[in-house]
Design a protein that fits this description.
The protein is α+β, with helices and mostly antiparallel strands and 677 residues long. The chain contains eleven helices and 36 strands. Helix 2 runs antiparallel to helix 3, helix 2 packs parallel to helix 4 and helix 7 runs antiparallel to helix 8.
């Protein structure tokens, strides 16, 4: 039972035949290699294929080597042989698809995408190939933006062999391993089957057995009882919440009924589910009833996950045309009498055209599983799924949980730490146990009020600016009628907060810091803006008057440097608009360069609307503009401003006179007189 592919169609239909293999003497080497491969003895088949290839470079020998290394998870060697294979004219489209998968396993995503593009040109609409191609693009993005957190190889439990499928029971860790075990499993003296009890032909290692440990170090690891571990594979343990019922996957040597003595008799090692019940009185496990939907001569049933209450069992099987393709995830529920009902396919929201594996629910109802049928990094990837409005929303868990190799068997133990298995690079053995604890996701926001510094009353329509000092990003917010503002903050950064409003001195550089915070929080900062007291000069003549001892001040022509025609206000409003501010800033720069200059400003409206309203509006605009100059550091003594409303029209468009919009526009003007004395 290979831990990842024991449910693939090739193995589901495998029937291992009695009798000793005939020697290669007198037969073609390639035939003997094929015989070994048929029985999944790839470790034995590969040297024979190599010998055959050296004698003659045939497509059959190259494919045997490529497929053999692929099944043994030697991705580097497999890539080299698939490259040779697809260069041969006799290669098939399936060879190209396998080659693309191996390239993905080697993180060669651009090359894999090229191969897949060619494959899809020959076999358009292939769902697996389309998914793999999408995965090539996604993998690059996931690698560039890994999920933050702590990844740990459970070295104390892992060995140089294959260790996988984590489960938990009453403080113990249970997992499967094909490390060497005791020597009691001897074959019978007259054993006439090629299925040996001490060695699994597929890998050349021991069979998988379940181990338990009281901690995460090797000093506590021990094989589970013989009543649980049989002569062949035992793996994938899953427990009810009380720890008294266990479902797990096993293989057993079985013979079809009706075989005749003296003839070759077919045997099977397909997977089935078994149950163990804990006997409190005996302090031992007792075998429970067989799962009614095992059919070991037709297909494998594996990867069990039992719900906490023991009433729903999830598992993996390949029922051929009944499923979505490859191995699918099914579930059974118990009726009132405790009998398992017919299996139910979890449907296309979960199952794909590929192979789904290792189903599991956490305590919050989130569903986890592995598949090679969705866009992923390569091989099996772990996904999480949540049901929203009756439909599954499925998300790839990204890097570092997923890698370019197989990542599977997710498990939780009442915390947010994910335990899983992987044969990724850098492990201790062919498969290792890992755990990943994501970094705590901190969420920060900022809220506050803009307030009048003197009266402590809220200021509506104030412009609040938040600057991220580390990224330079700028966000703006205009306060509501109660002076409120709010921003979403990036985690662990530093900000500067500014507040501005016409007729008020701005408050700038207020510090907002999330660095050092360890819990999500809503931060509060209020901004206090001081009102600028301004005066408008009544009845000031447009032309400057003589000054004793100096004479008439000299007017300054700023044509080309400052254009008052660019000073506009929104309809019915007095705030200085951003575009007007840019023009005013030109004049302010000139005033700072020429400290002897003074400015006389006048603000006018057209005749529409009430006379009193227009006068007040123009005066508010005069005050707002004057405040802008003061806020920029221009001395109040150098400035005069007055609003005239509609009292100084420059054309015939008085009250009641029909005029064009252009004629009214001519009256809506702002005038500046700059002079030097």
């Amino acid at each position: 039972m290979n831990r990842k592919h024991y449910t693939l169609p090739a193995l589901l239909s495998a029937m291992l035949v009695m009798g000793m293999f005939t020697s290669a003497s007198g037969q073609y080497i390639i035939k003997e290699a094929n015989n070994q491969a048929t029985l999944y003895n790839y470790a034995a088949a590969i040297p024979l294929y190599q010998k055959a290839y050296r004698k003659k470079e045939t497509v059959e020998a190259a494919r045997g080597l490529a497929d053999g290394y692929r099944r043994l998870k030697d991705y580097t060697a497999a890539a080299g042989w698939y490259e040779k294979l697809v260069a041969m004219p006799e290669h098939t489209a399936a060879d190209e698809l396998h080659y693309a998968g191996i390239l993905m396993n080697n993180e060669q995503y651009a090359a894999a995408k090229t191969v897949l593009t060619g494959y899809l040109g020959k076999t358009p609409g292939d769902k697996i190939a389309e998914s793999m191609k999408a995965g090539c693009d996604s993998a690059v993005k996931w690698l560039a933006a890994p999920v933050r957190g702590d990844m740990e190889n459970l070295k104390g439990l892992n060995s140089v062999w294959s260790d996988w499928s984590t489960a938990f029971r009453q403080g113990e860790v249970i997992f499967a391993s094909d490390r060497p075990y005791d020597s009691l499993r001897r074959d019978a003296l007259f054993n006439n089957t090629n299925i040996k009890r001490k060695r699994y032909g597929y890998t050349g290692n021991s069979y998988l057995h379940l181990y338990e440990s009281k901690g995460l170090d090797s000093g506590h690891v021990m094989t589970m009882a013989r009543a649980v571990n049989g002569d062949y594979h035992s793996a994938d343990a899953s427990y009810t919440a009380d720890g008294k019922t266990c479902y797990y996957a096993v293989t057993n040597l079985a013979r079809k009924r009706g075989s005749l003595l003296g003839k070759e008799q077919p045997y099977t090692l397909n997977i089935e589910l078994r149950t163990q019940q804990w006997d409190d009185n005996k302090g031992a496990w007792q075998q429970g009833p067989a799962f009614p939907y095992n059919e070991i001569f037709n297909y494998s049933v594996g990867d069990p996950f039992i719900s906490a209450d023991g009433r729903t069992l999830y598992f993996v099987a390949d029922y051929g045309e009944k499923g979505q393709g490859g191995t699918d995830i099914y579930y059974c529920t118990k009726d009132a009498s405790g009998q398992w009902q017919q299996p139910v396919n979890m449907g296309p929201g979960i199952n794909s055209a590929g192979n789904e594996r290792s189903p599991m629910f956490d305590s919050t109802g989130v569903f986890y599983f592995s598949t090679d049928g969705r866009p992923g990094m390569g091989g099996l990837d772990i996904f999480r799924a949540v049901k929203m409005n009756g439909a599954w929303e499925v998300l790839n868990m990204g890097v570092p949980v997923n890698s370019a190799q197989d990542d599977f068997a997710p498990a939780y133990n009442g915390t947010n730490t994910l335990y899983f298995s992987s044969n990724r690079k850098g492990g201790k053995g062919s498969d290792d146990l890992y755990r990943f604890t994501p970094a705590k996701i901190l969420v920060f926001s900022l809220e506050g009020k803009a307030l009048n510094k003197k009266t402590n009353t809220p200021l509506g329509s104030a412009e609040i600016t938040l600057r991220n000092k580390e990224t330079g990003a700028v966000k703006k917010f205009t306060t509501d009628g109660e002076g409120n503002f709010h921003f979403a903050l990036d985690s662990l950064s530093a900000y500067g907060l500014d507040g501005e409003k016409a007729l008020f001195r701005p408050e700038t550089g207020v510090a907002v810091i999330t660095k050092g915070l360890t819990e999500s929080a809503v931060l509060h900062r209020d901004l206090y803006l001081e009102k600028i007291e301004v005066e408008t000069v009544e009845n000031k003549p447009k032309d400057p008057v003589p000054v004793k001892g100096i004479g008439v001040p000299k007017k300054i022509d700023l044509a080309g440097k400052f254009n008052p025609q660019n000073i506009y206000f929104d309809l019915g409003k007095a705030d200085v608009r951003p575009d007007a501010a840019r023009e005013l800033d030109k004049l302010i720069s000139l005033l700072k360069e020429n400290p002897s200059w003074r400015v006389d400003m006048s603000f006018h409206t057209d005749s529409r609307s009430d006379d009193s309203y227009n006068l007040k509006l123009s005066q508010r605009r005069a005050a707002s503009t004057l405040a802008y100059f003061l806020a920029k550091g221009i001395d109040k003594k150098r400035l005069t401003a007055k609003g005239y409303g509609e009292t100084r029209l420059i054309n015939r468009c008085a009250n009641g006179v029909r005029c064009s919009e252009a004629e009214h526009q001519a009256n809506r003007r702002t005038e500046f007189v700059i002079f030097e004395r």
